[in-house]
Write a structure and sequence with these properties.
The complex is a heterodimer of chains A (about 240) and B (about 600).
Chain A: H1 4-21, H2 23-27, H3 32-37, H4 61-74, H5 89-98, H6 128-147, H7 156-167, H8 178-194, H9 206-211
Chain B: E1 2-4, E2 8-13, H1 17-28, E3 33-37, H2 56-61, E4 74-77, E5 85-86, H3 102-105, H4 120-128, H5 146-160, E6 168-169, E7 172-173, H6 197-208, E8 214-215, E9 225-226, E10 232-233, H7 255-258, H8 260-263, E11 269-273, E12 276-282, E13 289-295, E14 301-311, H9 317-325, E15 348-356, E16 372-375, E17 394-399, H10 419-429, E18 436-440, E19 449-457, E20 463-468, H11 473-491, E21 496-502, E22 545-547, H12 562-578
Parallel strand pairs in B: 1-14, 2-3, 2-14, 3-11, 4-20, 14-22
Antiparallel strand pairs in B: 4-5, 6-7, 8-16, 9-10, 12-13, 13-14, 15-18, 15-21, 16-17, 17-18, 19-20
Helix pairs in contact in B: 1-12, 5-12
The chains are: A mainly alpha (about 240), B alpha/beta (about 600).
Chain lengths: ~240, ~600
Amino acid sequence: MSNDGANRRRIFLKQVATAVGAAPLALSATGAAAAAAVAVPGTPQPQDSNPATPAWHFFNGNEARAAEATVARLIPADDAGPGAKEAGVAVFIDLQLAGAWGNGDQLYRQPPFLAGTPQQGYQLAFTPAEMFRLGFAKLDEAARSAQGTAFADLTPEQQDALLAQAEHGQLDFGVLPSGAFFAALLDATMEGFFADPIYGGNRAKIGWKLVGFPGVHASYANDIERHGVAWTRPPASIADAE
Amino acid sequence: MSKTMPAVDVVLIGGGWTGSVIGKELAASGKRVVVLERGQPRWTSPDFQAPGVRDELKYTRRHELHQNAATETYTFRNRVDEVALPMRRWQFAYPGNHLGGAGAHWSGAYYRWDPVEFKIRSHYTQRYGARIFEAGITAQDWPLTYDELEPYYDRFDHLVGASGFAGNLNGVIQPGGNPFEPWRSRPYPNPPMRVPHAPALFGEAAAKLGYHPYIQPSALSTRPYVNSEGLHMNECVYCGFCSNFGCEQFAKASPQVCILPVALKLPTFELRTGAHVLRVELDKNRKHARGVTYVDAAGVETFQPAEVVILCAFAINNTRLLLLSGIGRPYDPATGKGVVGRNYTHQTSSSVSLFFEESVNINPFMGAGAVAVTMDDFCTDNFDHGPHGFVGGGYIQIQVVSGAPIGNRPTPPGTPGWGSAWKKAAKRYYNHSIPITITGSALPVRGGYLSLDPTYKDAWGQPLLRITYDFPDNDIKLSAFLTEKGTQIGRAMRGVTLAQGNPRTKPYGVAAYQSSHINGGAAIGADPATSVVNRYGQCWDVPNVFVTGAALFPQNSCYNPTGTIGALAYWTADAIRREYVRAPGRLIAS
């Protein structure tokens, strides 16, 4: 076709636009290993890249280890497939916490902060960034006082036991209810596992492949009345620019 | 610093459905009209184009098209003896923001309200006796009837390109449609939606049990359509990114698809975005509005003089504007006196979780906001309420709204929330589970109301709107009844291994999403002692101020609000255009 060239150019431009859109991730790559794995702005980004050493935007080294260790227990790699760590969920959370959302751009933060009834919903003063920073520090403290080591160095069984205590609000995190931290961590983990891969998680569409979500496929007009037929096409992300 | 703009005939607060419809109608009649929209301009192209729009994190989790809770939220308490606290993040409803408002991110479920709902108090009293209403229920008749509103429903149908199969054409029941549907003067402009697998299974079971399932009407176009404004809509492609998203396809009706392109071509119509209205300004005797004060996109406090002010903000945000402006007497639940803030309601929704054999592929991602098989056998007064002792009803349906898995990852009761057991269940059930959803009506109670919060303020330093509310026992009884009916249908469906009903229980809370149908505070009525506006939406106390939208609902129907809101917008526009202009500043005679 005579317009093949034009089409290719359009696709290329879309990919460039997508890569620029993902610039926060690309610009983050300060380490040599990460730079090798992550695209620079202006070139199509390999969307399923798997940087061996992520360049963290928000987490310090201890927090990053704790984040990777916790998400690996919340959604573990097992015989059902890779888990949250392999899907880059810690990278996702790190990027979210470094950005506007992490800094509370969608949270009403006017005082007074009072304890409410359960029906009144979330009433804590922390931004997500503040909550995760404190929460991971307290989780490491709890691990040290129980087992003498950081959370990331516990056995999986010990990690699960500690997380279950946090889930039920049984750990003392000081001003931060451990149950609230656990709920926020689990929420963010699910977001990172199932959000579009452009946000740094759901790497290689691990989350979508687990459940069989096709992503951003264009149209089901021809399929919706084919009742019960399994969908078998591989999932597509926004960055695939279909 | 402040400035004053040139005077106009009509200023409308809000660029959603009602602002767009009334603004266009009045501009076309020669009035100089300004619509003040607090959000940003958002258009199908480029803002809502694929693939970028198909982003669950951005649109649903990060509230791209919702009011930003950081700058403006509501406070909530169950009872007057509690301290109301702010909803610090959105969990309970998604008020709209940006051009098109909630009309850009809605699902498109498209209903007319039943004739009974316009005369709820007198109808139920007549059929069952006054004691069918629990003590403290403040439900009241509308000051207009379904028959009066029908021509306006019809107009809105043809604006939004409604799809469906008429069940009742001019009083004649049509085979294949909903036999409980109120009469309509014309068929739907477009045929019904296609039916996905799970709704088909639901319909089969409901029919087997003797009910009357039908395909839910929608405001998603089912074929190429040119609407009543000459604007083009396309066929819905069932992409599954509908509720909370803008529609890339020009298929879901929205102000920007269906009316604004025509309005903006009128020399008498002006749209200003980034214009956040603070209040309506009244003259000295507080009987006449001079215009509105807003903060413009550059942050400058601005006065817009106008002959008529029309409140077209999201639902109960109109009630807040009345309170902030000192229009009408605020309601006092202790005395029952006053009207502004009275008759707040939400919805009485519940569900039945269904889990299927692994051979049944639901494909939850093939859907749309309003693709459902539904039934009205237990709506309004379509069944005998005598044995049950409650007022109202609800529809029972399976709809396939979204398979996006941050929000949609069902697991059976008892499954852990994380770890390998969760993961295994999430994998097993993602494509083999979908809920039956039940959308029930909501009755207002004497102690449930809207007022200005004494403590918490918005980003402009104005008091937040405070919601004080708990369910009446009536609605809890209704939910138990409907959820049991839904559970029986679920158990009769092919391939279902587990059907578990989740009825609505007290207390009412704002920590989980129920629906964005939050209503009342500016009730429409025939008596100024129990209503804020007359039958045309005109304020009793300040006749050159009109109010639109769900703030007018004296109680909530089980049926989704937008059809009725659109019909009322045309009704109000006609009343202003034909009647009000003859004696401006005066109450329109009924």
